[in-house]
Predict the structure.
Amino acid sequence: MNRRIFFLTGEWTALARFVRGEVPEPEGMPSVYLPWLRYKSRGYDVHVFMIGNFGKNGPIDFCGCKIHLVARPKFFEWRNKQDRFRCRFPADCCFLYRAATAVGKSGPPEIVYALQPWLSYAGWALAKKYRSTSVKRIYGTWLYHDWFSNHSRRRKFHCLAEFLAWKVPSDMMIISKDGTCGDKLADWLRIDSTKYRMWLNGIDKHWSANSAESDRFRREIGLDEDDFVLLCLSRLTPWKRHDRVIEAMPEILKSVPNAKLVLVGDGPTRRKLESIVNRLDLNSCVYFTGMVLRSKVYEVLSIADVFLQTNDLSCLGNTLLEALACGKAVVTWDVGGTKDVITDGVNGRLLPDAESSTIAKAVIELALDPQGRASLAQAARKFAEENLLSWDERLDKEVELVESLERTL
């Protein structure tokens, strides 16, 4: 039997339609599912235990990895929607632990991953039971911001459970370098510096901005050939602040009348954003496409003349790195480590703030300066090629680290 590895995870929005069989592949979050495939390619028997509002339990196959869907009882979904004490989190750990031990009867795992902090308890218990290597994976955190920048006692009380989860022992904690200060939090919590790594995500270096499919995608969403396309690519959630770009559009249109804003993604703020578009009478120049398959992201990026990222807290996410890899002129702002990959005027525009007027000014300057825009795009591609790891390189680095832990335990 191949060596086994267990991944414990909740339901990710970008994977939700895929695991329900509504789309043929994931719509995002490569940092979550690509490790499953990498371990599989290296000979592991991969089991993913995913808890969510599935309606029923059941395994599905994903490129040889077995995803065990663990249906959360409706009672706990109701409790969470009521925003009461989140009793669902310890319950989720119990449900996942039970599902994993059922599979573990046919063969114990050698490695156990907890893919969210609140699943650390279940990961630790399984690692103790099977004497496995335990890995905690952190994809970003609001804890540092909420504790040190937020003075609400109620908010701080809600942080306590996650603080405790960070302190649950593990052999290694891998934190995404996404600008949310995970390393500072680990140091503040006095987590041994040898017990965590802080790494950027990988990129697909084979992607090209000159996709033959870009014209097809333009036609599909109704863009004309001479439209100047501004692109935002991310989930539509409050902290991603797509409203900033929408509110910059009236000023942009005064100087760039052929400007079009394309918002790729979906989420809870879509209706609110649509109402802003209606209020500003921008329906003819703002497009909502919904989510797209992960394999189509490079096609989406290919249509952009300017890529924009104006989040709160941090802009250093997958899509920013992907825009660099595709050679796009990037406009973002100096928050949460963005300056680690963007140098203003060299490989992008790094704004001092994310006010709509500041965004509009930067976009207008780029629209009126094609040569400058092309220079930024070329430098962006060069930076990605020389400074960022491909996904294969990034994942091999992780697998080799985890396997080295096994040898020393």
About this structure: Residues 148 and 345 are 32 Å apart (CA to CA). The two ends are 22 Å apart (CA to CA). The first strand starts at residue 4 and ends at 10.
